[in-house]
Amino acid sequence: MKKQLLFKTLLLAIALLFANKAVLSQNYEAGKTLEKSAAVPENVDILISNHSGDIDFSTTNESSVKIHTDIKVTTKTKEEADKLMEAIENFKFNLNGNTLNIDTRFYKSMNTINGRSTITLLNGDKIKIKDFDISHKISIPKSASLNLKNKYSNVSMESLNGSVQLNLYSSKLTARNFASDVSIESKYSKLYVSDFNAITKLDLYDTDIVFKSANDLNIQSKYSKFEGNKAGSLTINSYDDDFKIDVFTDLKMEAKYSGLVSEAVLNMLDLDLYDSDIIIASAKQARFSGKYCELKLGNVKELNIPSSYDNDIYLGKTVRVQIDESKYSLYEMNATSNFSIIGYDDEVKIAKLNSDFESISVDGKYGKLSINPGSAPFKIDAQMKYGKVDFPESLKVSKRIEKNSELEIMAGENGGTVKIRGYDMKVTIK
């Protein structure tokens, strides 16, 4: 009998325990829709700070701004849900002159443990919630200027005619056309934009961006990826980035540990690089200074290199290449009319001399020069120490002096001149 009583008591205790847990685990779900609006000037400046929920922008021909907010919350009690709803309802929406200020943030801080969050509201109240979902839909005049600060949520936009400034953190942006100037500062985000139709400034950190077309782009970035179909002029300051932009007109780039691949035919190319790789189709005017880089530049009409250290540079057909100072670098080109270099332990390979060939000038130590002249006539003017020059036997030699370790050769009667001043170099012209 005592055993039966003990067993019944144990069952009752277990039942009470589960009943208490069931009561404790009960949730209160609530939902609400808010509407706020204001009549505004057509050229209104809209300042928005959004840390609470996804935000969707649409445009209108009306001189008004309307915001539609959907709220869903799950709390322990109705009282907590009511407090949370009231806090959300009171978000800032103020028009002052030509400026509309909207701030959707309704809490100071949020801590989450085991799927449950404690929110400290702006008035200091603390509320325990299991879940909440907030989203905003905003309609603005097409000509409005927009300044948006956004964190931890998605942003979508229709085409905007006014100027736009975006400050994004851990966000996803999906946008159509920006008709006016745009400035975007972004960290840890993903950006998908159809068209930048005016001048655009991008300051990105660990952000991926994909776009269809752009006007001129001014880019400052770290640890980011860029994909685009076409753009105007690019000005880039880059660190450990990856660029794949099919077509653009000009490039001025300062970079470390970055790469750019393009099919672009450029008017102007200006590069200051460190341990970076560049591939383009061609350029009319180009300048490069750098270390530890690989460049594939295609046809370049004129290339100037003030300083080169341990680079590999591949060119198509060129007209003029001037290298002021070089060490440990490789230069390969399909053809040239004018080439000059002052170098140390470099290798130069010229596959062909253009029919209008004028001159090659090499002043170097411990390097190699290989030239296939093709059918272009040429002359040789060489003065070397500890060096060797191989050239066609058919070329008429007017002067040849070999004394001790010094070599002087004058050969050829027509065409441009291959001038060599070298120390321990190997030269082949065949």
Chain-wise SSE layout:
Elements: H1 2-25, E1 28-39, E2 45-50, E3 54-60, E4 64-75, H2 78-89, E5 92-96, E6 99-103, E7 107-113, E8 116-121, E9 126-141, E10 145-151, E11 154-157, E12 164-169, E13 172-178, E14 182-187, E15 190-196, E16 200-205, E17 208-214, E18 217-222, E19 225-230, E20 233-239, E21 242-247, E22 250-256, E23 259-261, E24 265-274, E25 277-279, E26 282-291, E27 294-309, E28 312-327, E29 330-335, E30 338-344, E31 347-350, E32 359-365, E33 368-371, E34 378-385, E35 388-390, E36 397-403, E37 406-411, E38 416-423, E39 426-429
Parallel strand pairs: 2-6, 2-10, 3-9, 3-11, 10-12, 11-13, 12-14, 13-15, 14-16, 15-17, 16-18, 17-19, 18-20, 19-21, 20-22, 21-23, 22-24, 23-25, 24-26, 25-27, 26-27, 27-28, 28-29, 28-30, 29-31, 30-32, 31-33, 32-38, 33-39, 34-38, 35-39
Antiparallel strand pairs: 1-4, 4-9, 5-6, 7-8, 8-9, 34-37, 36-37
Determine the structural class based on helices, strands and strand pairing: mainly beta
Largest sheet: 39 strands, mixed
Mean pLDDT over the residues:
92
How would you describe the shape?
elongated
- Tally the beta strands: 39
Query: What proportion of the residues form beta strands (DSSP E)?
Result: over 45%
**Span between termini:** 115 Å
Helix content: under 10%
Number of helical segments with 4 or more residues: 2
